[in-house]
Amino acid sequence: MKRILIGLLALVGALTILFTGLLLGLLFLGASNKPGVPGQVVLELELDERLVEHEPEGSLTSAFGPGRLTVRDVVDALERAGGDERVKGLVVKVNGTPGSTAVVQELRDAVKAFRATGKKAVAYADTFGEGDSSTGGYYLATAFDEVYVQPSGELSVTGIAIETPFARDALAKLGVKPRMSKRQEYKAAVNTYTEQTYTAPHREETERFLTSLFGQMVKGIAEGRGLSEEQARAAMDAAPLLAKDALEAKLVDGLLYRDEVYAKVKEEAGGKAELLYLEKYLERAGRPNRTGVQTVALIYGAGEIARGESRSSPMSGEATMGGDTVAAAFRKAVEDKNVKAIVFRVDSPGGSYVASDTVRREVQRAREKGKPVIVTMGSYAASGGYFVAMDADKIVAQPGTLTGSIGVYNGKLVTADFWEKLGVNWEPLGAGKNATMYSTDAEFTPEQHAKNEAYLDKVYADFTSKAAAGRKMPLEKMQEVAKGRVWTGEDAKAHGLVDELGGFPVALKLAKEAAKLEGPVRVELFPRKKGAAEVLSELLGEKQGDNSDDEAGVRMDAPWQPLQEQTRALYRLGVQLGVVGEPRRQVLSAPVPEPTW
Question: In what helix (H) or strand (E) does residue 500 lie, and over which residues does it extend?
Fold first, then answer.
């Protein structure tokens, strides 16, 4: 049995390494040939999956060539194309919703700016929804000059909804007891565990959030299609609509198949224009804002906030915002004499309070060193995501950005009764009065509960006082708009949590104004993009920087690391149960415990 298990693990490991080698080889080959941009071109974009906010610099794809399409890629490509005489038009196939409301609004702004240069943009879909809603996809399409749908398609533009799971009763049946606290009543993250339906404050903030987003969509669709808001709202209330009904309601410009749409686009572009994917155009033509002498640093803070280095998983594609990594990027930008201002792109639901404060401190220090910091928010900047942003000179958000959630929560799930149902008894022992305070097998003592409540009070007071200082707002007013409540960017601006509405271009404009820069500037990403050799050596565990200030990159987990960790855990369990490993005959021996601190 032992030999079979070891053989299987060795085989899995060998296959994983072989797969990684083949992947690297393909990436090298794909990056070898780069032809130019044709003399006449129509840019083509297929939006068939959600755009990512940022491709971490330490990922394999970023090291060896273009990775997944990002929001900034589309925005930059359209800005570059707007001033490029070779580009005659744009056609986009909308296969679904490319992201959050804020992401769609960022793309809408970019399309409108492209059209403002006198170039035509056409949106096409085989259908806007088929058995599901495609309100976001259609909302994006209405920013284009013309919208077409296949004759057999439909317009399932039914609105926007949120479904929230509440598991209090299910947890009770399982024997799991939530022991969680929050500050304050609108901080709804714990409600999934502690409630069975919406509390009044939770319902109020959620309904207001949805109403604000829906109003933004209605207004955008009405403006894009030349309708009144009442007409747009009525059409959405009547959805799903058949294609012919959508045409009669002036929601689309024609019922055409793909070949008919593309033939029309090419003919209007002069007949000789070639199609070129937008991402390939960006790769060949280069990004805008690369010719200036003076530099504006661009720093990303994307993902859940955690202490230590940022991490990127090649398996899940998810990344975390490491406080140390982002802080080091700020220090590098501050030390660079060519950097005159910093644009900080935040797209985070929050996370560690300590890591958030680490980043906030570097934002503060950058300003003290004379480097203005302008924050641009993506899909969300909530809780810790707002914490890292609140000390900036200016904050820019899209109308649909989920903003605020100035509050705090923590606690634990007590699972002793659950394990008892399974016949398992976890019995915690500790040296120290509160050594088992965070054990999931024991209730808080009254003293421990009081300590936890005092900690929440401290963090909430710190959050609100620092937010008030950063936003130059009276503390009493900040406390009124805080309470753990989430706002849309539109509502957040009305309450003083945001300065301007918009995206990357607005943030860059404000950065130039704050630093008193004229003419073109060079936008430089911090930390710098890693090369292939650095990524490979990092996968083998080698540190790249000479010191902690140099470690500003993203730490990428090796593809085999999750499997390796799970295999080790399984092996340790097998040893404890006596099913793997050589039989032990020693008498004076004891298992080595894994303590919690």
Answer: strand 500-501
Residue with tokens 């990004």: 287
The Cα–Cα gap between 405 and 186 comes to 8
Q: How far apart are CA 220 and CA 296, in angstroms?
A: 31
Contact present, 91 and 124 (Cβ < 8 Å): yes
Rounded to the nearest integer, the mean pLDDT of the chain is 86
From 357, 351, 348, 352, select the one nearest 376 (Cα to Cα): 348
Tens of pLDDT along 274-313? 999 999 999 999 999 998 889 999 999 999 999 999 887 6
Output the CA torsion 106→109→111→116 (10° steps). Answer: -160
Which residue matches tokens 């001033």? 83
Query: Measured between alpha carbons, how far is 498 from 518 in angstroms, rounded to an integer?
Result: 25
Q: How do residues 156-215 score in pLDDT, each as one tens digit?
A: 999 999 999 999 999 999 999 999 999 999 999 899 999 999 999 999 999 999 999 999
Burial 509-522 (b: 16+ CB within 10 A, else e): ebbbebbebeeebe
Residues counted in the chain: 597
The residue to which tokens 């090369």 are assigned: 531
Average the pLDDT over 228-251 and give the result: 96
For the chain, what is the total number of helices (H) and then of strands (E)? Answer: 22, 22
Distance CA 378, CA 348 (A): 8
540: enclosing H helix or E strand: none
Task: Give the pair of three-digit tokens for residue 520.
Answer: 């073109």
Q: In the block, which residue shows the tokens 């295999």?
A: 567
The pTM of the full predicted model, rounded to 2 decimals, is 0.85
Read off the tokens for 328.
């080091």
